[in-house]
Amino acid sequence: MQYKAPIMSELVAEGKSPEVVFWVGCAGSFDQRAQRVTTAFTKILNQLNINFAVLGTEEACTGDPARRAGNEFVFQMLAQQNVATLNNYGVKKIVTTCPHCFNTLKNEYPALGGNYEVIHHSQYLQTLINDGKLKVEGGAFKGKRITYHDSCYLGRANEIYEAPRAVIESLDADLVEINKSKANGLCCGAGGSQMFKEDEPGNKRINTERTGELLEVYPEVIAVACPFCNTMISDGVKGVNQQDDVKVLDIAELISQANSY
Amino acid sequence: MDIFLSIVQILIFIGLVGTAFYFGFKKFKEIYDNINLGKPETINTTLSFRIKSVLLIAFAQKKMFKLTFAALLHLVIYVSFCITQIELIEIFLDGFTAGHRRIFHLAEDTFFQSIYVFAISFIEFLTLLTLVVTIIFILRRTTFLINRFNKPELKGFPAKDALTILTFELILITCIFLMNGADSAIRIKELGHGYGFLIGDIIGSMLTGLSFGALEVLEKIGWYGHLCMVLGFLLYLPYSKHLHVILAFPNTFFTRPEAKGEIHNMPAIMHEVKSMIDPSYTVPATDGEVQFGAKDVFDLSWKSLLDAYTCTECGRCTQACPANITGKKLSPRKIMMDTRDRMEDITKGKKEHGPDFVDNKTLLGDYITAEELRACTTCNACVEECPVNISPLSIIVELRRNLIMEQSDSPSEWNTIFANMENNQAPWQFSPEDRLKWTEELN
After folding, report:
1. 8 Å CB contact of B328 and A199
2. Please, what are the averages of pLDDT over each run of 10 residues along chain B (443 residues)?
3. How close A197 gets to chain B, by Cα (Å)?
4. Which range marks the domain in which residue B393 is found?
5. Who has the most CB within 10 Å: A20, A65, A135, B337?
6. Same domain, yes or no, for B232 and B277?
7. DSSP state of B301
8. Into how many domains does chain B fold?
9. Could you tell me if B353 and B216 are in contact, meaning their C-beta atoms sit under 8 angstroms apart?
């Protein structure tokens, strides 16, 4: 199958209107590891013939790291630009693979006049599976020990705990919960703009602590649903030299690999 | 002579209660005024949501049960505290009329006598349980090294505060048993049987060797001791972390409705940026100078100030904080304690030096440092943990805003991402033209 990522401006020029906009996010666009998640999710959308589009060069950072660092000016500049772009295209529905983009688009853009139905890809995939549109082969992950690391911005911030787990369960995998999961989950260490700076003085890195908790259940795969968690936990696994035994994969990658897309 | 004694008793009682209520009211009013000095914040919730929050979170202590053992211990004290207040009805009635067990005597030889005896016995049972729990609590604070009770912010007054109240409790329990026991002993000596109290009668039967005079003195010590402990608690409460026994209710009543991930909008900056993008946009008039974020306590929302006075310093937030767990300086509990301390310091200063008091200190900098604020991952673990719905994160965000936008105090890496976001619309230094580069890897 020839995979495509239709671009909003081009579709509109052709007089077409996509049903859903795939918000790729900065990590998904530029970070090499997150790009693989973006392509995995795009492949799923293609395989299911979903009428989607990306904004491409018209997409800007949602402003999440700026707002959380305390720089409201930069947040407003980016957010208002995005709201203008989205409203200009009359976008109704957005799906994103990044919980930070998800949270900002869903909870913070309405105050700026941006009202959309915003869906995280874990929810989107869960719906596709439940509707019978997405058939998961289980395949590569059947019976594998998979644990899931809750993203703070998906979990505590937006109370989405079941959707990513439902996606993992569709693989016929052995989903093992760690002690501190769901509302009790520990942050990977990247939120609040920590991703972009050195840690404050302390005795341990947060991702090392969290990875330790995840490795306690001897998983073969640590599933994540956030590009920043992905980076942090991957680094944590490398830090204890277990990268050959424990894979850190996004739930979109689990599906695309299981179905050999 | 009897009448004279009665009048003296009533005057002592009114004097004690009046003084306690006067000073108590004054201090509570001070706290109320401080909370009202906070910035306006509208809490958009329905009355049914508010009542539900109070019933579930404050009344039924739902979130306490994340730690079952601690929650059960706390529940004992909480239930005893509430139910023991029934006894106060009679204490007040007796106090105002120089009487002795007036309710009992009204109920005596009627159906209500058994209800009275049951009520007092039930209170005694709860009091005994409270004694056990109080001892466990003291051991948890002093002997067992429970991590969240051994953090730096608890050194000094906060550690003493916890033990002070536990000592209050031990004295109160002693007074209750002394009062009921001596009273029962007198009755046993007079009538050959006690009141029928579960524990009071047992203690009474052991005290019958004492003279009537001695027993009456013991009974009065118990009675006045009980009263003084209650009034003392009332006076001490507003200075202590135990203020939560009252403020947990309004604080959960005003629970914020937003998704935890939402950080509230700043209309002033929204308008300013709008007018930059669209020059024809007219910025709505604002009343005078606008300061971004919070530098001092009264720049915070009144809800954050109420949060600070409600905090019980239990440390569940700090125990769950990823920054604190990994040895960073940030402790969400300390954020709340500092906010309250700052308000109290300003109040004290104003009292001593008049209403124009300034000490050239601010919450940001002198109480809470940039290092603490910068360690926060905004993960909401502290907010999730708090048994009374406090948000340390709201304060952290407001202080961060001031640090960045008013004081331009930002780590260099953050300055870099701000510049990248302004110039490239991404935190990294990639050209916006390359946003679709990933599509090359699609096939």
Report:
1. yes
2. 86 96 96 96 96 96 95 96 90 93 93 95 97 97 92 95 96 96 96 96 96 96 95 95 97 93 94 91 76 96 98 97 98 98 96 92 98 98 97 98 97 97 96 95 90
3. 5
4. 269-424
5. A65
6. no
7. B
8. 2
9. no
